[in-house]
Design a protein that fits this description.
InterPro entries: CAAX_protease (IPR052710), Rce1/LyrA-like_dom (IPR003675)
Structural class: mainly alpha
Protein name: CPBP family intramembrane metalloprotease
Pfam family, one: Rce1-like
Largest sheet: none
GO molecular function: metallopeptidase activity
Distance between the termini: 54 Å
Keywords: Hydrolase, Membrane, Metalloprotease, Protease, Transmembrane, Transmembrane helix
Mean pLDDT: 88
Number of helices: 7
Shape: globular
Amino acid sequence: MKKLKVKWKKAEMNQLNDRLLLYNLYLTQGLTLLIGAIWIIFQKRNVFELFALPNSVHVLWWGLGLAAAMLLVDLLLSRVMPEDAMDDGGINQMLFQNRPVWHIICIAAIVSICEELLFRGAIQYNFGPYWTSILFAVIHIRYLRHWIPTGWVFLSSYGLGYIYVQTGSLWAPIICHFVIDLISGLALRFRRYEE
C-alpha cells in the first residue's frame, strides 16, 4: 500500500486565489466548530443548550452596543494610525472586495457562530476571558506582525467574553461578532480603491 504524503507549506499572498482562500476559510471554520463542539461535550455540557434563544431582548442590546463601540474604535484607529500599522496582509480585502452581499452575510454568520462556540462557549468556560482572549489574538496570526491590531483583537475578544459573562447567552457575542464582520466586510466590498 502506498503512503499518502502531505506537504504543508505557507502560501504567499501572490499564490492565494479566491477559491483557495474560501477553501481555507470554510475548512478552518469547520474545524473550529468541530473542536468547539467536542470540547463542550468533554465538559459534559450540551452544545444545543448554548444556542437556546434568550428570554430577554437585553442580549441583543449587549451585542449591538458592543459592536457599535468596537466599530467606532476601529474607525478611529483606521483614521489615526498609518495604514501599514493596521495591515492584515490583504486577506480581508481579498476575501470581501469582490464578494456578493449574500456571501458576505453567510461568511459573517458562519465565522461568528463557529468562533464564538469555540472561544466563548468552550475555551472561556475553562480558562476565563483573559486567557481565551490571548489565544484568540494568537490564532488571528495575520495580525501578529503589528502590535496595534494584535492588541485590538485581544481587547475585542475580551469584550466578547465580557458580554457573554454579563448576559449568560452565547447569542450576545455571536450578534456582536456577526455585526462587526458584516459591516467590515461590506465596507471592504464597497470601498473605492485608488488605481
